[in-house]
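Run folding on both entries below.
>entry_1
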Amino acid sequence: MLALLGATMPAAQAQQPKVLRVSMHADVRSLDPVWTTQTIATIHGNMIYDHLFAYDEKLEPQPQMVGDWSVSEDRKTYRFTLRDGLKFHDGTPVTTKDVLPSIRRWATRNSAGKTLMTFTDAVSAVDDRTFEWKLKEPYGLVLDTLARANGLVMMREKEALTDPFQQVTEAIGSGPFTFKRDEWVPGAKAVYTKFADYVPRRDPPSGHAGGKVVKVDRVEFIWLPDPQTAQAALVSGEIDFLENPQPDFMSILEATPGVKLMAHPAKGTTGVLQLNHLHPPFDKVKARQAMLHVVRMPDIIDTIAPDPRFKKLCYSYLGCETPMETDAGSEAYKAAPDHRKAEQLFKEAGYKGEPITILHATDHAHINPGTQVLIQHMRRTGFLKLDVQAMDWGTVVSRRTKKEPPAQGGWNIFLTGTTVLGSSSPITHVALGMSCEKAWFGWPCDARMEDLRRAWSLAPDTAARKAIAVDISKRAYETVPFIPYGQWVTPFAYREDRITGVINVSSIPAMWNIERKQ
């Protein structure tokens, strides 16, 4: 084990008293958390960038980069003023010249941002530190949208003006850590150091909000693709924090002295089986409906999370144990697989045995076993021809952006997941939007769904939103933008005998406030 980690972690550095060594669920490959929804890119973004607002531990939006804010009596004009002391890592101050293009770039790619902009009349600077957000009509989700952990990050004007569909390659933010580009080794290690000029808020840390006080000099993301190796590294103390331990290893970690498992009540993942709506066979709704008679959720979720404490059969497109939970319209999916019905629907969709291209991420803790089960389900039908293409998760993230036909480098199916927190709202659930070419990968298209999502965002209270959520669920099971395949919680694990101050957050792990014991 020591020899293995030695290839990615110099021995001298490993002995430094203020180095935090962590292993995340994936390797850092993209430096742009706006360009991709990949969770590891969001984690990277949280290290080096800051946000206008952030969720606290109670999932309430709190100002972060914003110092003061107000809203007009008609609820149509928000005024925000940046707090004192905000600097980029190159020493330049953060101003509204950076904020405004950052907002525009984010809103072009982010589903919730796109929705917010449909209600927006203008976002304009008042001066270097103050800007106004004027709405066409009152919209109650402004602060919630800005507070999303994987949402709006402040880039320098230079990077923020980059085409939203091109990756930003510089990694200079104003957050609590700086990215050591010269030490970045894709496939092995990403390194972050304390930003000495970062001025944290004076509030105590709470979720992703409050004071982001960095108490170590250096954080190393060590990429350990083999789950057993990662677990052994935590047990032996070679790493301090393991974000995504395999379910099979939970009992071992729980029994290891000095190791603690922790999970936020809202921390969880909803499985997303994404279908490509641009190309046959899933450009036809009957082929997508057919998959509801092929996929069996219990098989997939049991493979991903065998421990009953950490899983839930969840047929709700809006997450389970959330205010909008509903499984309306899910009868076909809940029933036993019906291959005859599936074959009939595929034939009606024009399917004639063409290969269905499945992107299989073999290095991802839950996507790999989930995809293996999906492949078994589809092969059992006896009539579906599969083209399974094995690759790492980073390659899947790159390839899923391609709109070309599968034979020309595109795809038909891939598995992924999103946070329960993000999926609990039809506005923030990126995979539920069906805005055609503006939609998430798979590019589903349905005007009725978009009307329902808009109506939900304008509903006056929770009861009205719940009623619309039922209609959204029924429409989702009719049009099948994607197929949910369960919900599970993955506690993170850390060495409580070596580090203190670990913040229990709802989704993206926070590396600030952590302190090494002397």
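>entry_2
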Amino acid sequence: MMRFPTPDPAAPPMHRRLTFLRSSAALAGGWLLMLAAFGLYSVTSHRQAFEQEVSESGRALQRAISQRVAQHDAHLTGLSALGLAQAQPSEDFDLVARSILRFYPRIVAIDLIRLPAEVVSSATSGDGSTADPSQVSRAVDMLTPGKAAYGADAKRGHYRVMKRMNETMAVSLDIDGAKLVEGEELPRWATLRLSTAEGLLLETGAKPPASEGFFARTVSFDAPIASATQPLRLSLQRHVTLAQLLPPLPFALFAAISLAGLVLVRSLMKHRQDAALAREAAEAASRREALRQHETKLAHALRINSMGEMASGIAHELTQPLTALLSQSQAGRRIAAANGLTDTPIDAVLAANVLQAKRAADILVRLRAYVGKSALEAGVHDLGRHVADIVALSRIDLDRRGIALEIGMPEAPALARIDPVEIEQVIHNLIRNAADAVEQSGRADGRVLVSLKPAGQSYEIAVSDNGAGIPPDILPRLFEPFFSSKPDGMGLGLSLCESIVERFDGSISAQNGAGGGAVFTVRLPAARDMQEQEEAAE
């Protein structure tokens, strides 16, 4: 009978905290609490963003207006100097005044006044008007020469700046306050006010609402304009509604997502027991799979040991006939030498037999050492020499099969710490595999290329062909023991090649060439670098 797990009093804290979701009323209450928290966060963050935006826009407008009113003072100074330089008013004053009106549209009138009540010169634009000389006289009456004063203007939104030049002359500027702010400088949401000590001078921009709704707020910026002669004060306001503080669409999305999340959590908790039972079943299956893999590894190790014993026996049995072959060939050379047959074809054949018998004996010695885990110590050798030797040995077989064998070698020696016979075995195996691939493809122009070149702190031996290449499903498993794509292959050749190369701190890789065929690359550290590593380790 199936047994369900009973509640654990020592259940994780998270599980105990989330049990409230099992009640519908508690679920609804938690959801409303999350909505309230999100609403409070949204209102606070948006209000702060609006306050910062109003403050930045206000400071930018304050700087711009301050620079413009400072220009008014500069114009007053320049016009006063020009008026004083002339014994009588001249056309120069009128030309300068009209030039100022043209380039500074906010200045709509410039008047030169002879105190107390005569307009000597007046330049006005479409919105400007000539000053009343008596009012100018009263405004500057108490000023010392060179001082300026602020004054009101008959037009709404306009004001005047007047300066006393000397005892008998004064100059007056009519300023249109609405033009102190250019259109693109005022944000669409802003209500701008310019005021003086006498009251409101100008109000422009967005219209303030007739009545503020629930939760509506007004965000303000208020600061004086930096000027001694034009006592203006800037006020910038933004009217913010509840919809701006709490946007409906994000709030609705949060409400829907949070409700769906709570319902999902509740559903997950409801099925918690089923998930626990499924997890136990999965763990049991995982343990069975691990046991199966362990048994597979044991069987694989047994096969490896059996292969080792078989290889050791074969090496032992072949040693005696190879020794006999070597001895007989050497005896044949001595007989040939005694009969004056030195350097003849038969002596060359016997010399080749001696060389290949010694090489076969070396292979058997290393095979027995490899099986017995007592590989011979490597030495520093020239890779180029041994690559050339094994290419020369393989060329006979490839010529017989109609496959061209090309070689690319560096001029300088390529010194590496290796065992020459074992590296020759690796290269010979790669050349033979490449030739088999070319032969299976049925190409008439079959070609195998063996190249050796330096690559940074290492040397690369590349064996490439123009065969059909390596299928994508086979490429990741090429170096696995007992895996072979050949019908009669044992799957040990490339695995042994990898073991040999890694014993010399190298690596071997395979890939398909860009123009077709396969490329096998053996990388071996340069002997100098290996010596430096050993000295550093010591």
